[in-house]
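Below is how a single chain appears once it has passed through the pipeline. First comes the sequence as given, then the structure the pipeline wrote out for it. We keep one example in the README because the format questions we get most often are answered faster by looking than by reading.
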Amino acid sequence: KDLAALGKDRGRVVVLGNIAQAYGFLENYPRALDYNSQSLEIAQKLGDRQQIARALNLDGLLQNWRGNYRGAMESMQKSLKLWQETGRQWGVAESLNNIGEVYQAQVNHKEAIEYFSRSIVICQKIGNHSLESDGHKNKGEGLLALRRPWEAMKEFELGYKLSVAIGEKVIISISLYYMAQAQMQLGRGAEAMRYLERAAGIQNEIGDRRDLADTRTRLADIELRLGHREAALRIAREAAHWRRRWIGKMRFGRPN
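Resulting structure:
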């Protein structure tokens, strides 16, 4: 707000983009797209190619989250081209990763893995460990969907190690969650539960209610498969509790 009040156009571009991203996280896509459209329009008037690329990338993310894959791909490809032309390798890596996510959402896992791999290579060259860890996690998801659990596990472990090194607790918990899924494909229920318990501990620590609910639901499912009905019911109730609390926070901004 301060930057916008000063009337600084570049500041307004950034502020509007941040507001758009916040609404995107809240899943209010119409408002997110509106704010991002304003940000993109100002960036285009300024001829600021870097901010144009950022806004196009965010538009692609928002379109992907709302299921408009064609629109998402169109914006992300434009963003990728601009990053390549300006020589911003971190932007190229991010766009490649995001394009991979669009392919993943459309169940085109082979194409997605190709884009994730390209992003990872660039991240390794420029030392972007945060995006690299996310890329390994995404690539692992694709391999898991293709029923290649051993390869997926290697990717999840790489992402996990990087996220631990830089303290990215969200990615740590997600990596543990998917490592559990790989263990399930390998028929190792007990090992999967250990990974899920570790993930749940981190999610509880950082207040990640949505992922905690998903993790507890998965734990309940495994308990039920193992014939532990009482434990499954108890954990399922815990999952429902955390999901209600997450929905309450999203709608009404309730505290933890």
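Residues 1-7, 249-256 have pLDDT under 50 and may be disordered.

See the next section for the split statistics.
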